[in-house]
Amino acid sequence: MLLLILGLLVFFAIHLVPTSPSLRQGLIERFGEGPYKIVFAVFAALGTALIVYGYHKLQINPGKNPILWDPPSWTRHVAFLLMVPAFILLAAFLIPSRIRTKAKHPMLGAIKFWALAHLLTNGDLGALVLFGSFLAYAVYDRISVKHRAAASPLPGTAAGPLNDVLVVVVGLALYGLMLYWGHGALIGVPLVSA
């Protein structure tokens, strides 16, 4: 649990810097934009690695990861539904579209849907810490964006309806890939039995 918590602290500490424009600007003025971005990327990667390794260790050592509740089977179906908009918003983050413009910060929306879906279907302490942290961060960051009047960080103009269709198709394709192959291959938990 310690590695997971350490990873979350490192990951969120560096991601909280942009929520304070004066702190971010002060660091850029003092060290330069290039070094700031390099340090940001290194800490984000280090945090991610610690999160993945720490959570993996909890899954293979169930004695160190107590079960807090046994989620009912219907939560699995709700999670499958919540992951559809998560993947569409992820695609909207990558592809200029009217969906991306309307969502304003589609990655934060994708994180909220992803975290909520996984909180519903996992009853262990490690999952509560991991997914609860990401949900809390995404909610905080979205509120922070409104208060600091930050513009959408996504460049590019809103494209026409064809790009909206592309966003939905790519999102659904990513969803299908993760559902039928990726979750089992990458996470070790197959979602659909063959």
Polypeptide structure, described:
The chain has 194 residues and is mainly α. 76% of the residues lie in helices and 0% in strands. The protein is built from 8 helices and no strands. The protein has helices at residues 2-16, 21-31, 33-60, 74-94, 98-103, 106-121, 125-147, 161-187. The protein is globular. The two termini are 33 Å apart.
Name a few traits of the molecule.
194 residues
Give the structure's gist in a few sentences:
With 194 residues, the protein is mainly α. 76% of the residues lie in helices and 0% in strands.
Strands, helices and their partners?
Layout: H1 2-16, H2 21-31, H3 33-60, H4 74-94, H5 98-103, H6 106-121, H7 125-147, H8 161-187
Helix pairs in contact: 1-3, 1-7, 2-3, 4-6, 4-8, 6-7
Taking all residues together, what is the mean pLDDT? 92
Order of helices and strands: HHHHHHHH
Give the end-to-end Cα distance, rounded to a whole number of Å: 33 Å
Describe the largest sheet: none
Count the domains. 2
Computed structural class? mainly alpha
Q: Count helical runs.
A: 8
Percent in strands: under 5%
Share of helical residues: over 70%
Total DSSP E strands:
0
Approximate shape: globular
> Which regions are unreliable across 5 or more consecutive residues at pLDDT < 50?
none
C-alpha Rg, in Å? 18 Å
